[in-house]
Amino acid sequence: MQCVSTTIQRLNHQQLTDVESKDFNIMTISIIVAMAANRAIGINNQLIWHNSNDLKHFKKVTNGHCVIMGHNTWLSLPGQKALPNRRNIIISDRLDEAPEGYELATSIPQAIEMAQNEEEVFIMGGGSIYEQFLPKADRLYLTRLDKEFEADTYFPYINFEEWDLVDLEVIDDDPQVDYSYRFEVWERKQ
Ligand SMILES: NC(=O)c1ccc[n+]([C@@H]2O[C@H](COP(=O)([O-])OP(=O)(O)OC[C@H]3O[C@@H](n4cnc5c(N)ncnc54)[C@H](OP(=O)(O)O)[C@@H]3O)[C@@H](O)[C@H]2O)c1
């Protein structure tokens, strides 16, 4: 297992503005996703692969934070159970009320407003939610699989010129899967 770690602590544009205006209501919008080499992320409203190391990574990164998900991603969760030890927000125009353990937002701005007091909020999919949040995101936690998969849902195109790689871990010896993969963290260039 090769591991290169270069985490850099930086303030994003919003944070700098907030510090300057002495308004300490700081929130980092982070996207967290596992995607294949062809940007595949899901099929038949399910994840395509099983990668237990990535599930552990997801749990570790999001633990104690707020997660925001779309209606379909909520439906895809086992038993539709809220993720433990996290604040769970669903975005949906069709649900009449929030399921147990969840908060309901009926729009992207409302979800952002609800998470205003969080230090870091994690956008956890799916495809349509990633698409709408990518232009607003400050940080990307990408698990990138070095293999292509058949899919019906894809992560949107990322222009990496707009982003700095700040952390990288390469996993090329996981005996449970037949591909190598990387945990990457990217921060939007100022
Ligand atoms: N690989 C990964 O890391 C990963 C992570 C998460 C999910 N996934 C996969 O992604 C797939 C699901 O993605 P998806 O694109 O089909 O669904 P999704 O993004 O999870 O949810 C879409 C739904 O969210 C609601 N929504 C989206 N934008 C909205 C807005 N602006 N205002 C109000 N409601 C809004 C709508 O629900 P209403 O119709 O109720 O209004 C919409 O139908 C699944 O296959 C899942 O397994 C993969």
Description:
The chain is α/β, with parallel strands linked by helices. The chain has a single domain (3-188), classed as Dihydrofolate Reductase, subunit A. Helices cover 21% and strands 31% of the residues. It has five helices and eleven strands; from the N terminus they run E-H-E-E-H-E-H-E-E-H-E-H-E-E-E-E. The chain has helices at 13-20, 52-62, 71-76, 108-114, 127-133; strands at residues 2-4, 28-35, 40-42, 66-70, 87-91, 102-105, 120-123, 139-145, 153-154, 163-171, 181-188. The radius of gyration is 17 Å and the shape is globular. The site of NADP nicotinamide-adenine-dinucleotide phosphate (NAP) has 30 residues, from strand 2, strand 3, strand 4, helix 3 and helix 5.
Topology:
Elements: E1 2-4, H1 13-20, E2 28-35, E3 40-42, H2 52-62, E4 66-70, H3 71-76, E5 87-91, E6 102-105, H4 108-114, E7 120-123, H5 127-133, E8 139-145, E9 153-154, E10 163-171, E11 181-188
Bound molecules: NADP nicotinamide-adenine-dinucleotide phosphate.
